[in-house]
Amino acid sequence: MADTFAISEVLELAVQIEINGKDFYDILAKQSKNEKAKDIFRHLTDEEEKHRETFQKMLDSVKTDAPEGAYPEEYFAYIRALAEGKVFAQKNKGKETAKNVKNEKEALDLGINAEKFSILFYEGMKKLVPGEDNKMIDVVINEEKDHLRQLVELKAVLD
Fold first, then answer.
1. How far is CA 107 from CA 13, 103, 128, 130, 152, in A?
2. CATH classification at residue 118
3. Average pLDDT for residues 95-102, to the nearest whole number?
4. Which partner from 8, 9, 67, 121 sits 20 to 30 angstroms from 90, CA to CA?
5. Whether this model's pTM surpasses 0.85
C-alpha cells in the first residue's frame, strides 16, 4: 500500500506527545497553589510517564522501516501539521503551554482538549498504517481515552 505510514512513525509521535504531556502536568503541579490540583497534576505527570514507557516499548518492538512506496508529500505535510498544531507533538510544547496557564481550570481544559485531539489524530492514523498495526494504535487510543476520562472526572472535582 503506497499511502501508508509506518507504525513506528505513529509511535514516535505518541512518545513525543506523552513527553510533552508529562512536562505540561509537571510544571502545573509545581505552579499550582491548590493542593487538590497539585495532587491531580502529579498523578497525571506519573500517568504520562507510564504511557510514554508503554509507547516506547511498543516502538522498540516494531520494525522501523517505512512502508514501501512513496508518501504523498502534501498529505504527509497535512498529517504532520495536524499533529503539531493540535496535540503535544512539538518538542517542548508542554512546557511552553504550561507557562501560559492562568489557573487549574484552564489547565484541565487544555489537557482535555489535548487528549481529544490526540484521540482524533490516532483514529485518523489508523487508516494510514498497515492493517496488522491497528491493534497497536488501538492501545494508544485506549490510553488516551483513559486520560480524557480522568481529566473530566478531576475537573468535576475542582468545579
1. 22, 6, 32, 36, 12
2. 1.20.1260.10
3. 86
4. 67
5. no
